[in-house]
Amino acid sequence: MKKLVIYIAMFIFSSSVFSQSDDDSSELITEFGMNMTGLVNQLVPFKQITNKTGPYAATMKFIKDKNAFRMGIGMHILSDDDFNNSGTDILNVNIRLGFERRNEVNEKFIFYQTFDLMLMAGNFNSPINDFTDTENAGAGIGLGLGIEYLIFENLSLSTEGIGFVGVVGGTSSIFNATIIPPISIFLNYKF
After folding, report:
1. Residue 80: which residues within 8 A CB-CB, separation 6 or more?
2. Which residue of 70, 73, 160, 185 could cross-link 61, Cys pair, CB 3.0 to 4.6 Å?
3. What is the distance between the alpha carbons of residues 38 and 41, in angstroms, rounded to a whole number?
């Protein structure tokens, strides 16, 4: 456990080094994002069979120039009592810490690459998922690609796909790899 705390502290400390640039005149921008997939599914019912909205409900980014330190957290809880059926209980908890490299395509679109340390209990709440709902816990690296559309200067929509490689207990093979498709739509606010 002490090693994990040390690794996380080193990871957070390295974010300040990662986000430095030659020109220190640029300001640090904080961005908060909420997963709006559930709301969009209610307004425009693409497919009501699944309740998969992706692993993260909220994200926080600290952006400086073309770099960002990012965090995400998500929890998905369903039990037999919620729908009064014979399905199993679902508890998914997902946390990530990572870096993002942002590239402006034009005045409205930003393309970004991500590198994350990801922790998971349950599964990733994704329609393409190799893990059962309640018996897994794991940690690994996530590499992703995303796109952001600027509605206004401080308001944007974004989505991203992530490839996960890591150690997951409770599966037939301890070392696992999976893809989390870009199913989550985030509404982001910069302040």
Report:
1. 86, 87, 88, 89
2. 70
3. 5
